[in-house]
Amino acid sequence: MEADERLAAILAAHAGVEGPLLPILHEVQRVFGCVTPAAQRAIAGALNLSRAEVHGVVSFYHDFTEQAEARPCVELCRAEACQARGVEALVAAAEAAAGSRVKLATVYCLGLCSVGPSARVGDALYARLDAAGLVKLVEEA
Amino acid sequence: MTQVHTPRVRISDDSLALALGADALAAAFAAAGAEVERTSSWGMHWLEPLVEVDGMGFGPAGPGDVAAILAGSSPLAIGRIADHPFIRPQQRLTFARAGRTRPLSLADYQATGGWQGLARARAMSGAEVIAEVTQSGLRGRGGAGFPAGIKWKTVHDAPVSPAHPRKYVVCNADEGDSGTFADRMLMEGDPYQLIEGLAIAAHAVGAQAAYIYTRSEYPHAIAKLRAAIALAADIIAPLHMEVRAGAGAYVCGEETALLNSIEGKRGVVRAKPPLPALEGLFGCPTVVNNVLTIAAIPHIMAEGGAAEYAALGVDRSLGTKPIQLAGNIRHGGLYETAFGISLHDLVYTIGGGTASGRPVKAVQVGGPLGAYLAPDQFAIPFDYEAYARADALIGHGGVVVFDDSADMGALARFAMAFCAAESCGKCTPCRIGSTRGVELIDRIRAGEPVLDAVGALPQMHNAAKAPRGRAENIALLEELCETMQFGSLCALGGFAPYPVRSALKHWPEDFGA
Asked: CB contact, 8 Å: B175 with chain A?
């Protein structure tokens, strides 16, 4: 299916949904890996919103991006509870392992606060990470 | 006739257990010929993945331990789980099913008293249900502690207009605070209880639709809830219930930002009034309650539940509170008990001190916006008012322990930096104040008096022309904190000063003193 058709199918699937913008953006981000300006224009047209309104929402939320990320992404929790369990001491090794091949992102809390440091790759979760475990995770991402 | 005994093994499918390899462990047991049941988590996180064989526990287990566990010779044995010293003293009402049932099994839910509260509520009028919720003394578990019954009554009594003809119930499951995971455990482990609570709330206030707004960081909770809602659709009909996923904005845990987000807008905080109870989702009267508030409802609405609930707790903090022990703690996990327990008991007696074995330096209660408490304050009872008197908050009940290697100045800076990153930008104290706060803490910690580059410009007539000293910078930080605390629109800017001020007060040496 062409990209335009897939976008149209997503929009059609959300007809009649109350407050459809976030569910649509989630689906577009999942399918295309980003919400491009062209997609924003199409979504704005379908929902009778201005492009500025849609762009404002896309730029507000961390989950939505205008450009697709080609690299695999490892999200490392660096919130207080993981700090208390020593995550900051692992960051340098993880960054070195990631280099330019893997995107090492920070997330604030995965809800695994009693068994940190923890990380997420896609929907897979990892906890009780030490330096070696985290480096292995980054290398295999 | 002889039967071959197939051992029945229970392993949690909570995402914390999954993060520690529970799926591989379950597969290993299945390969060894055991019948594996996936249940919710008991909440003893240091023992996860925890294996239960005929009531006896083994943990933390890996695939290499399977043979020894099945042979009954594993050194990981902890005895009968229900009698474990971490479990036995708890008063589990909201988490009564934790570890005991399969999350998506309607049969398990029904067999453990499920849907009784809803059936009883449906036989009553909305006002009668609200009277019982009020009688129970239940207060909002999200942090603010507002009486649930009064909020429900406001929505119940609110008129609907032709422009806003509906009423809504919204469950705030945007559990963004570090150190909290009770909402996640409940959504993953006992989703029907939340669904039943929402159905009761909708019946009580006359709402037609219910939304559960949770975080995109909780994919397992979202999947479990969606599956559970589909399976329970006939039971809760005609109520429409839906899960909405956030998109990585911490501030959407604030109820008005959350409502904007469901409506498809930027997660910007609204000024109050109007209260969401009168003008909430799409301008309609809306109940917004935390997961733990809603999940307490089925128990309260069961026969005699309200009186039983009100008999627990202390002072005006009634019922039980699921407390989350996290961070650098030996026995981390979920501990539900009546209000009034001391921080000392939580950290040392129950939590076993730090995981690192070093002395406890500080405990942060209530998430990133909660105060840091020093060991000499640990006698404080877990109670909304007692914490307020100590310039602290219990928030969502997260307890994060730090050992003596923690740098409290760095953590204070982190609180301001986090506020700056997550501010919705609507009000000035939060948007600008948090950034200025980071700069001020940096200047205080640097020790060297530095003249502010902008302040030094000739056109800045009123700015100080000499660099401020340490005492002046600290006074300025205190003043900034006060402005943020009393001038911000919501709790993000309003509470960010709590960790900063408490750290500065108890550990001035970490600010370069």
From this structure: yes
